[in-house]
Design brief:
alpha+beta; 5 strands; 47% helix; globular
Length: 180
């Protein structure tokens, strides 16, 4: 019984990101694959998202790695807040994040982006930091089923992400008079 409990704890640890307290790559892929291939979800519309934090290197170099860590945690919080409780949010590593959510009647890729933008704006206004935390987000809509290829979905979301990156915030500093 003790060994079983310890193995369950180790399994959970191996699936979570220590810094952000969300799933890591392995945990995210395991949980999402389970949901999209479950028979009860066949045909259900869903979204997979690929998010990339903007300007992490500048924040780390200018303000220190503690501020970079703060920024990564904030990105995780923004994604969790923007999506419903049944969603899955993960950190693939570095400044890359992923998310999965079911598509309710009122949820579209556009509404998800709008929510992320609004929450990001609000958090930046209230955090007292001299820099903006922001992300670019790529979204892929699909229907759940056993034959869905997670890698293909992530590739499509990644293409959308890089199209969105073209519109990213150019200045990381809130006081634009400061030079980077």
């Amino acid at each position: 019984e003790v060994i079983k409990e310890k193995n369950e704890i180790l399994d959970e640890i191996s699936k979570s990101d220590e810094l952000t307290q969300i799933y890591n790559r392995r945990g995210f892929q395991t949980m999402v694959q389970r949901k999209i291939s479950h028979a009860a979800n066949k045909g259900k519309k869903a979204f997979v998202m690929y998010a990339d934090m903007n300007n992490l290197k500048i924040i780390n170099d200018r303000f220190g790695h503690e501020e970079g860590d703060y920024s990564l945690k904030l990105i995780a919080d923004i994604l969790k807040e923007a999506l419903d409780k049944d969603s899955i949010v993960g950190r693939f590593g570095g400044d890359e994040f992923v998310a999965f959510t079911y598509a309710a009647d009122d949820i579209t890729a556009r509404s998800i982006r709008k929510d992320i933008t609004e929450i990001t704006r609000r958090k930046n206004e209230g955090n007292g930091k001299p820099y903006y935390v922001s992300m670019s987000v790529g979204i892929c809509e699909f229907e759940c089923g056993r034959d869905v290829d997670m890698d293909d979905l992530m590739d499509k979301a990644d293409v959308d992400l890089y199209n969105e990156k073209k519109h990213k915030r150019s200045n990381v500093l809130k006081n634009e008079n400061e030079a980077i």
